UniProtKB/TrEMBL annotation:
Entry-linked InterPro entries: DUF868_pln
Protein name: Uncharacterized protein
Pfam families per the UniProt record, alphabetical: DUF868
Length: 309
């Protein structure tokens, strides 16, 4: 009998060579290349990590990078507790490396950081030349960044226990037009993928708005008449995983509060991995921190919040 993953994948959209969005032609305006448009600006990246210590205790750490024309910072939270906040704006950034200690709920947090050589592209999160190391109760809990300096290795070696961490969810916020480009990794063992979301409109020669989602320059979702299909979902098959993709662009067309200063409203694009046994669609509020029994079913969640301005 065919297993459930194989059965589901038969009806899921495969990321294949057959549908490429690497070229643009006037006769097919929905097939677009990011080279023809200026992507929106990434303003905030919010990553939620689950850390399992050698004692079996769990901690949830949120790492937030924010960057706009006037403000730039790194913020680290443990639940409702703010552990660390650092102004990383180049005009005001003075202490680019250091250590901070914080104690809460009978847990001791040590944060080691070095952003003195951090390199940024167009987004809020540095792309190379940095590290942030979080030690919890003498266990190495979380290490992000790409620096492998001797000092980093020494800090790890001074702690006997090394915990495990996994990325539970990632949220990226964009502002600008309706082209969004980023990278995503849908499992710890998976590959990095280029993700591009584009909404074409009447000003580009189309009678009705069309939404297109590409992964690695291949079309996986194409929604016509978007003003009527402003909410929906589709399953794709990627890296041997079933990934639910849902979109909600209602506010792009029917913004209920135009005077709120949010431009033309925001859209939400949501990716989530799941097993074949989990046939339910999901909502963001279903991701409840600390629900250990259901962690495997939750999988990894990736959100893109897109504001038109």
């Amino acid at each position: 009998m065919m297993d459930l993953i194989s059965c589901y994948s038969q009806y899921a959209v495969q990321v294949s060579e057959s549908s490429s969005c690497s070229s643009y032609t006037p006769s097919n305006p929905c097939i677009i290349s990011p080279n023809n448009f200026i992507p929106s600006t990434q303003t905030t990246v919010n990553s939620l990590y689950k850390i399992t210590l050698s004692s079996g205790d769990h901690h949830f750490i949120t790492v937030t990078w924010h960057r706009n024309a006037t403000t730039q910072f790194l913020h680290i939270n443990s639940g409702d507790n703010s552990l660390f906040r650092l102004n990383t704006h180049s005009g005001f950034f003075r202490k680019k490396k250091g250590t901070k200690w914080f104690e809460t709920h009978e847990s001791k947090f040590e944060i080691y950081y070095d952003l003195s050589s951090a390199q940024y592209a167009a987004g809020a999160e540095p792309v190379e030349g940095y590290y942030v190391l979080i030690v919890i109760n003498s266990d190495v809990g979380l290490l992000i960044g790409d620096m492998t300096e001797e000092t980093t290795v020494k800090r790890i070696k001074t702690h006997k226990q090394i915990g495990k961490f996994s990325l539970v969810s990632r949220k990226e916020y964009f502002s600008g037009n309706t082209l969004y480009t980023t990278k995503a990794k849908f499992s710890d063992a998976g590959n990095w993928h280029d993700v591009m979301i584009r909404c074409t409109g009447e000003n580009e020669g189309l009678k009705h708005p069309v939404l297109q989602v590409c992964i690695d320059k291949r079309v996986v979702i194409r929604v016509k008449r978007l003003q009527w299909n402003f909410r929906g979902n589709q399953t794709i098959f990627l890296d041997g995983l079933l990934v639910d993709l849902m979109w909600d662009v209602h506010d792009w067309f029917f913004n209920s509060d135009p005077g709120s200063g949010s431009g033309s409203g925001h859209a939400v694009f949501m990716f989530r991995t799941r097993s074949g046994l989990d046939s339910r669609l999901w909502l963001e509020e279903k991701i409840v921190k600390g629900d250990d029994d259901d962690d495997e079913k939750k999988g990894f969640s990736f959100f893109i919040y897109a504001t038109k301005s």
